[in-house]
Amino acid sequence: MSLTALVHSVLRKLKGDDDGVPKEAYQVNIASLGARLWDVFSRTYDLGFIGFGGPPVHFQIFHRRFVDGMGKTPWIDEQTYQELFAISQALPGPGSTKMLFNIAQIRAGIIPAAVVFLLWSLPAALAMFGLSLGVQRINNVLPDPVYALLSGLNASTVGLIALAAVQLARKAITDKLTRLLVVFGACAGLCYNALWYFPVLIVIAGTITVLWDCWLRAWIGKLKRKRSNTHSATPEPLVESGLAGENVQSTEDNRGGPHRRHAAGRNSTSEIEQVDRNNTGKTDDASINQDATTARPQPPARPSANSISGHGIPVKFGILLIVLFFAIFTALMLVRGLLHTPPLLLAIFNNMFLAGTIIFGGGPVVIPLLREYVVEPGWVSPRDFLLGLAIIQAMPGPNFNFAVYLGALAATSASPARSAGASFVGAMLAFLGIFVPGLWISVGFQSVWRALRKRQEVVSILRGVNAAAVGFVFTAVYRLWEIGYLTKEASRGVSLAQEPWWLVVSTLTFTAVEWFNVPPPVAILTGGIAGLGWWGAVRR
């Protein structure tokens, strides 16, 4: 057997029987487990290495890969994508990771989705663990070029997130109401920042759209119809002119006899009635069509016509999963409250599990919360925290891998030896604590969503949640902009607006990716190089 034939034979064995793998768009893969694993691996193996830019950019990558297809079979349609995006923002935990997991689960089931999660998260998690080992051995003050490099990476990341916000808004905005909700989410997110705040904004947005789509729009349509009918009840000028025409005709017909006069009168009256009837019918039809258009939801708010059944779990089992999760969460919080000095590793896991459960809104909320959980107890120094924060912005994959870095540093905070084994255990506990809650709740909630997604009320709620969540992305642009500039004197981060060069870097990144199709990883690395170039020019 030749080498080529041997390779193909091994690949066929790894893939299994792929006859059942669907070739049509938007179809669920119900082939053998081996074929499903190969199906998801071949489409997602590189995401953990190219997913730069944070969740807003990740959502765009997922759209191109799984909705547009990029030359391959699309997995989900646009409406399903928008619903998953809304759900991933409405539930706690890492938004882009939950969305990728849900897409893979719809396509191939739970086990392939778990494999996709590992392919997505492990590359950057390992990199952040390696960074934690290196940070433990460096001086307290970093060289100036490092600060310039990190500032350049942050500036280019701001440009990427701004571009992702614009692109997401183009898809989320389907009418004037969703346009207002995007602005509402962005402005409200800028004005205040708290754990409870973003869930409240999401609930408000969903309530507004469901009230508008299901009740207010039809009610306003009825008012317009009544007003239109009131105006149409006034006497028409055509009737008066018709009667005048009959009198004139009668005067003229006195010369020709009574029979001609009566025939002309009947014809004139019938023609006027027919014209009036036709005009009234056209007016009513136009009014009805206009009101119907106003009363109907916009096409993006209609339930998806494509089925996603095949790998769903029963609703009862999904609800049981959610109840079981909150039972475990309650037990962990009781332990957290009853033990005055819990073991360090248990405290790390508890803090990360709590963060993964209560974080809504992504970056704007997770950073101050994690800072409170690891810096305030003295486990991680402020400098190490901000250094890891700057690095994670330039890493591919989920930003929640920041917890791996923090867990590794926290686990060695009480030990002068700072062993790699203790760092690894802390990193693993932090990884599980920050990711498991969001994925667990997402799996349970997906069963409920599958059962209710055809209801117009659910579609309308998700439409509003989706629009407000896109507004939060604009908030993330501002938040990172305000802490992106790192210097020796301001290691906590200050606004990039203090140096015009960073605005140039952000603008060029936005332009290069949007108009010249520069890959995001290349754009981010170019931003870092631009930061080094700036430092070489000004030496400050």
From TrEMBL:
<comment type="similarity">
    <text>Belongs to the chromate ion transporter (CHR) (TC 2.A.51) family.</text>
</comment>
<dbReference type="InterPro" id="IPR003370">
    <property type="entry name" value="Chromate_transpt"/>
</dbReference>
<feature type="transmembrane region" description="Helical">
    <location>
        <begin position="385"/>
        <end position="408"/>
    </location>
</feature>
<feature type="transmembrane region" description="Helical">
    <location>
        <begin position="317"/>
        <end position="339"/>
    </location>
</feature>
<dbReference type="GO" id="GO:0015109">
    <property type="term" value="F:chromate transmembrane transporter activity"/>
</dbReference>
<feature type="transmembrane region" description="Helical">
    <location>
        <begin position="108"/>
        <end position="134"/>
    </location>
</feature>
<keyword id="KW-1133">Transmembrane helix</keyword>
<dbReference type="Pfam" id="PF02417">
    <property type="entry name" value="Chromate_transp"/>
</dbReference>
<dbReference type="GO" id="GO:0005886">
    <property type="term" value="C:plasma membrane"/>
</dbReference>
<feature type="transmembrane region" description="Helical">
    <location>
        <begin position="518"/>
        <end position="538"/>
    </location>
</feature>
<feature type="transmembrane region" description="Helical">
    <location>
        <begin position="146"/>
        <end position="165"/>
    </location>
</feature>
<protein>
    <recommendedName>
        <fullName>Chromate ion transporter</fullName>
    </recommendedName>
</protein>
<feature type="compositionally biased region" description="Polar residues">
    <location>
        <begin position="267"/>
        <end position="291"/>
    </location>
</feature>
<keyword id="KW-0812">Transmembrane</keyword>
<feature type="transmembrane region" description="Helical">
    <location>
        <begin position="420"/>
        <end position="441"/>
    </location>
</feature>
<keyword id="KW-0472">Membrane</keyword>
<feature type="transmembrane region" description="Helical">
    <location>
        <begin position="177"/>
        <end position="195"/>
    </location>
</feature>
<feature type="region of interest" description="Disordered">
    <location>
        <begin position="230"/>
        <end position="307"/>
    </location>
</feature>
<keyword id="KW-1003">Cell membrane</keyword>
<feature type="transmembrane region" description="Helical">
    <location>
        <begin position="345"/>
        <end position="370"/>
    </location>
</feature>
<feature type="transmembrane region" description="Helical">
    <location>
        <begin position="461"/>
        <end position="481"/>
    </location>
</feature>
<feature type="transmembrane region" description="Helical">
    <location>
        <begin position="201"/>
        <end position="220"/>
    </location>
</feature>
